[in-house]
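Schema walk-through. Below, the input block comes first and the output block second. Nothing else is stored per chain. Lengths vary across the set, and this one has 434 residues.
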Amino acid sequence: MADALKRPGHICTIVNNTAQAENELRNGNFDVIVTDLVMDTPTSGLDVLKLAKTHQPDAETILVTAHGDVPTAKAALQGGAYDFIEKPLDVVVFRNIVQRAAETVLLRHQNSSLRGQVDAAYGFEGIIGESAAIRHVIATIRQIAPSTIPVLITGESGTGKELVASAIHKHSKRKDRRFATFNAAGQSETLLEDQLFGHVRGAFTGADRDREGVFEYADKGTLFLDEIGDMPLSMQPKLLRVLETGELIRLGANDPRKADVRFISATNQDLKTRSNDGRFRQDLYFRLKGVEINIPSLRERREDVPRLVTHAVGKWCAELGRPRLGVSQPAMMRLTAYDWPGNVRELLNLMHRIVVTCNKNEIDIADIPDDIRSSDNDSGGNVGSFAGVGLDKLEKEAIRQTLALTQGNREQTAQMLGIGERTLYRKLKEYGLR
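--- output ---
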């Protein structure tokens, strides 16, 4: 079998028992696994299939069976096997099955790579960044979007919580239905109840007709409730009841109504601490937290700042109908070093102002407002400490700190420093940096 596959160019690893197979699957990297169904035990092949799914999730598994084991092999297809082939082996058929499986894996890798390139260049549903933290957020969105599990999005103000909620909706089975948003901050209990659940005519002075709340408005779709940590404590049991039963009662009514919504909430507060302190119902907190997605602050993912700046400049230039502006290296490094207390929202607003007021072809350090250019609220250290330091030492330190910032990503480091990757590679060797 290995000889038949080596001739057209496949690289084969051969093992002779389940223990050896497990070792290879744990430590190796394979596209296709071919296993006999019966080896050490009558179900050894199924054991290998399970191991492959655990340790080589991107690979495809082909089972080789005797005629009497065909029903078992067919059942294995439901367990994730790619295909099976009966003994005695037809080498041509076997080779074709393996080739198709390998092509399936290759196509999957290519699609994943292209999707990653598109996400990196244009953002994933508007979420811009390549940092490990943002990649984890995007991966979580892809994983949970098809389900109906409640999602709690946490993070500081301005990090993009509504953007994440929208991305979940757009990748869910409800994407063709409504995505309704509502902010719970600053609402009295009566007004909040009316906004969420609606009212019937005569429920209160001025209620001259029935009105549906956002739960009914978002029926069969997604409801995003922002700033849920600010919801009055007395209102929380009513929300919990709706989430648990799927039924609501309009103000002034007695009969319940059905509302089928995918519920997503967000807060910039620590709900766990608030629930422990009695300021937020613990049972509601656990109900909301089906899955929690924490969006990191911008200062925790500084390596994404250059891409966000480039995206924002392109966006505002296109809106104003002017040629795309460049960003100088000193300006980009200053923007990257800044702590961004207002996070992405602050960055987008600042770049809008800079693009509007810049009268050159390139945004330079002088275009950055004084409060940011001279801010001590960053990791850049004291600028005055560089006085009298040799340029070679400054360059080495700039490269070293930028490498640390990007966690060793040379492409991002070169982009932030405004140099080519080949130049960076030469500098790394010159300065002995790794």
